[in-house]
Write a structure and sequence with these properties.
CATH class: Alpha Beta
Distance between the termini: 26 Å
Number of strands: 3
Radius of gyration: 19 Å
Shape: rod-shaped
Number of helices: 2
Order of helices and strands: HEEEH
Strand order of the largest sheet: 1-2-3
Strand content: 15-25%
Largest sheet: 3 strands, antiparallel
Helix content: 55-70%
Structural class: alpha+beta
CATH topology: Ybab, Chain: A
Number of domains: 1
């Protein structure tokens, strides 16, 4: 294969990846817990951007329960965000397995 052609392809893939990463920063994934009384939103980079706690789930006598629900919901939001990012990057790399 021609080295110059290979370099052009690599540059095009790099540009496409940069565009995909910019799109991911704008996309959001929201996970809900406690029957929708908790919600956590993460962007496509995995950063948590929003958190909502319905006062109905706040029990001062059982803070540990709320903490466990919240932790699980945050983890689901981050995991969903990662899966969304992986799917977007697979579109760009054609499934070659390059890291983001």
């Amino acid at each position: 294969m021609n080295l110059q052609k290979l370099m052009k392809q690599a540059q095009a893939m790099q540009a496409n990846m940069a565009q995909a990463q910019a799109r991911l920063a704008e996309k959001q994934f929201t996970a809900q817990g406690a029957g929708g009384k908790l919600s956590v939103t993460a962007d496509g980079t995995g950063m948590v951007t929003a958190l909502h706690i319905d006062p109905a789930v706040v029990d001062p006598d059982d803070v540990e329960f709320l903490q466990s629900l919240l932790l699980r919901t945050v983890q689901e939001a981050i995991e969903g965000s990662k899966k969304m990012a992986e799917a977007e990057m697979r579109k760009v790399t054609g499934g070659l397995g390059f890291p983001m």
